[in-house]
Amino acid sequence: MTDMDENSPVFAIAMAAELAEMHPQTLRQYDRLGLVVPGRTRGGSRRYSMRDIAQLREIARLGSEGVSLEGVRRVLELENENRALRSRVSELETALADQLINRPGARVFAASATGAAVPLRAGVRPQRNTQIVLWRPPH
């Protein structure tokens, strides 16, 4: 059995239309326009995911606020681009953190008993009675 998530195409068009509070023909039109493109079964039937349903509801909300279908398309494109960019930033942050932790000479600082910041060599623990760690790269 496969794992289900918000992107799993499970709803037939009639159920998706009911969940989105739209007519099935509206979903077909949005599919033709490329606004919400559902998955397809081997036989070609549309299957909508929970993410598709949420997107249909967002289209309805934007339409009720007077946004044209072309405006809706642009909003959805920007939201998808934003989501992809956030994912890429997260990947890059993880890679950077790994680089900082694993690079030779990574710097860790501690506070001495007098309050001065003192560097510690990688793998060296601060003296418990006189120093506390101020910063070290996340693990």
TrEMBL record:
Listed InterPro entries: DNA-bd_dom_put_sf, MerR-type_HTH_dom, MerR_fam
Keyword Acyltransferase among UniProt keywords: no
Keyword annotations: DNA-binding
GO molecular function term, any single one: DNA-binding transcription factor activity
Keyword DNA-binding part of the UniProt annotation: yes
Domain HTH merR-type residues, every copy: 10-78
Superkingdom classification of source: Bacteria
PANTHER family: HTH-TYPE TRANSCRIPTIONAL REGULATOR YFMP (PTHR30204:SF58), REDOX-CYCLING DRUG-SENSING TRANSCRIPTIONAL ACTIVATOR SOXR (PTHR30204)
The protein's name: Transcriptional regulator
Organism per entry: Curtobacterium luteum
